[in-house]
Amino acid sequence: MWLPTPHDHYGRPCLRLAGCVVTADAMHTQREHAEFLVARKNTAYILIVKKNQPSLYAQVKSLPWRTIPAADRQRHRGHGRMESRTIKTATVTAGLAFPHAAQAIAITRRVRRSPQANGGPSPPTGSPA
Predict the structure, then answer these.
(1) Bridge-partner residues for 46, per DSSP?
(2) Residues 39 and 9 in one domain
(3) Domain shared by 40 and 73, yes or no
(4) Alpha carbon of residue 15 to chain centroid
(5) Which of 50, 68, 69, 46 is nearest to 60 (CA)?
(6) Whole-structure pTM value
(7) What mean pLDDT do residues 1-26 have?
(8) Which residue of 38, 84, 102, 105 shows the fewest CB atoms closer than 10 Å?
(9) Is 74 in the same domain as 35?
(10) Same domain, 36 and 78
(11) What average pLDDT does range 62-90 have in this prediction?
């Protein structure tokens, strides 16, 4: 089984994983990988869930996200667009059929082109003369 080499916050390889949090893309969202990390390396994980794991994806999608309050919300404007990101977390200790899963995190990103980018009027830049 191949796993990416984890790095500490200085970019150095982290050879001892105990106490670390390993993050990986959807390719590594595999039950064997999760079991290996927790049971054999004594570490935690954050894995991306996409449609390559259809039953897990359906389980995460069916969580009551609409009733869960946002933990954080950020809005940014620039480069001709307005962008917002929202993060929500849910405890799932008894709900997901995935080894050692304790929480699910939903990050929602929305992008809207600003009116100026669509040729609309520009906002006033100063006080009237």
Answers:
(1) 23
(2) yes
(3) no
(4) 25
(5) 50
(6) 0.70
(7) 71
(8) 102
(9) no
(10) no
(11) 94
Same domain for 2 and 38? Answer: yes
What integer pLDDT is reported at residue 129 of this predicted model?
Answer: 46
> Tell me: the pLDDT tens digits for 89-103?
999 877 788 999 999
Burial readout 10-23 (b: 16 or more C-beta within 10 A, e: otherwise) = eeeebeebeebebe
Domain residues for the domain of 15 are 1-48
Which residue has better confidence, 126 or 47? 47
One domain, residues 71 and 43:
no
Among residues 85, 57, 50, 60, the alpha carbon closest in space to that of 70 is found at: 85
Contact (Cβ atoms closer than 8 angstroms) between residue 43 and residue 18:
yes
In this predicted structure, what is the pLDDT of residue 1? 47
d(CA 56, CA 62): 10
Task: Label residue 105 by pLDDT band (50, 70, 90).
Answer: very high
